[in-house]
Fold:
Amino acid sequence: MKRITILSLTILIGSVELVSCSDFLDADNKSAGTNADTYFATAEGIAAAKAQAFYTLRSNAINYNMNCAGTDLYIPVRGKDPGGFQTYSLAANNSDVESFYSNCYDEIKYGMFYAEKAGEGTVGNNEGRFIRDYAYYQLTQQFGGVPYIDHYVSDANRNYPKNSLDSIYTVMENDLESIYNSGLLPETDSKGNISKQAVAALLAKYYLADGWDANTTLKSAAAGTYTINSTDKFKKAAEWAVKAINGIKLTQNFEKKWSPSNEGNPEDIWSIQYDRASYPGDLTTGGHSLQNQFGDYYGDPTKTGYKAVGSTGAMSEKALYLWQKGDERYNATFMTKIYNYNGTWGTTGYYGYYNGDTTKLHLGLRFFPAYTTQAQAEAEFNANKDKYTKGSYNNQILAFILSSPATEYTFKDDGSYTKQTVTFDNLCLAVNGGACIKKFDDPNTQQQNSTTLDYRDIVIFDISDMYLTVAEAYLMAGDESEALNYVNQVRSRANAGTLSSFSAYEPDYSITTSFGSITPLDVILDERARELYGQQVRWVDLRRTKQLVRYNLAFNKNISNINDMSNTSGEIKWLRPIPEQAINGNNALSNADQNPGY
Structure:
């Protein structure tokens, strides 16, 4: 974390399975010159416990498979195996599922260690409990009911039974309200520490999920229909989301919101912090991969000068048509102009967008949104012919209108071009065939063929997410007018135009007969898709709202019918499987505790 130094600390994990959260912690700190109990009673020791607790948050924040795959927005390209997440064929020994689950229990373990070492009635105790509560939010949204542990475990107990989802929700909501009301935390914080605003945001998330899970009844998975049995928790979700918004208006434009030079702006409620300047280890391994997860492959960056992207999380056919003309979020989300490379890293090539003189750079790749006509694209080419000449640059110049089918332009050295129509399937097979997300770009990325070079902060909760949380909560509470008001505030900032009613929304993407009519909930989910694209929330959004099956049937080409998302007994895979190693390592769990569908 920024402004928190991770001390020279050796943490030894015991041989007991992580699911039991049983371990011992020892310190080998030369400056302390004492044992662990004494060391962690000091201010230095508590700071080290805090650093370790916050450090554990990093892994799950960028887990593409768990958070994004198997939805309507993202697909693998270039013939990459879609994998079990995209095809809903996961097994209980899947390594991504196992690591996500164990990472959550690491967050719980070290969060509670920090809380207990900081002591009751301290900021540290509240922060440690918040980390524990956030870990349980991740667990419940992916796995449903799980073993609940309310303290730091220092013995070899392996008996932690599975708790019901509603019981975990209740305990977490009560604990977070207690933290909020304690008055110990700052109102806001832009440096990654926990604030009352972050607590309110997590409470809004909990109450929204609780309302859906406890107070709605599924009628048809394929149709995404349900009945609402109570609105109380949805009203609580709206109340806490409004507190998290804290009166902040959506006044800065979307491009500025995500600018690398604008981290920690007032719209960031809580972020996991990274700092290249103060990182003590090897910079090539200490960052994260968020800037590399979403897009097509652009070749080896050490040769092309472009960003390393791994053909995972490219835009689905629906995503191509999600943004409508005028919506500023398209150009702010995607890198639509990739500058050509002349051998000078950083000021030419991909990162020339941030570090170079773009008035002088030539283009290597140009991507137009689906609503662009060929005449409009060609007018740009003809008006800026010098930008599309090769000159002293290395790479072949290409441009695409990203529609289905797409139009591909191939440029000669003198700026003239030829064009061809490309089917969506062939576009997905091509190198350079689509735009990547730029929201998470780190302009100081080193020139290596690596995906651990991003030192941007990872935003977990932000203001516009809370606006749309309020909208969803009000919709479910029966206040459609107020729900639309919050949706329109998000759309207004993006210059996307306001809606006179939910029924006035007309998407540009094609929908199948099975998908049915667009509902107010669909409007909110589409707005969440545009506003939060790439922010690791889509799978949870669809699961929570009971739209997971309906959206996959309509937009996931790997899913042809509901049986593809069910086991042989017809149980739908609404949740991830409880990891096999978690069941085997916990005496209080058995195969009877496995989630339906597995």
User: Anything to note?
Assistant: Residues 1-33 have pLDDT under 50 and may be disordered. The two ends are 38 Å apart (CA to CA). The longest strand covers residues 363-368.
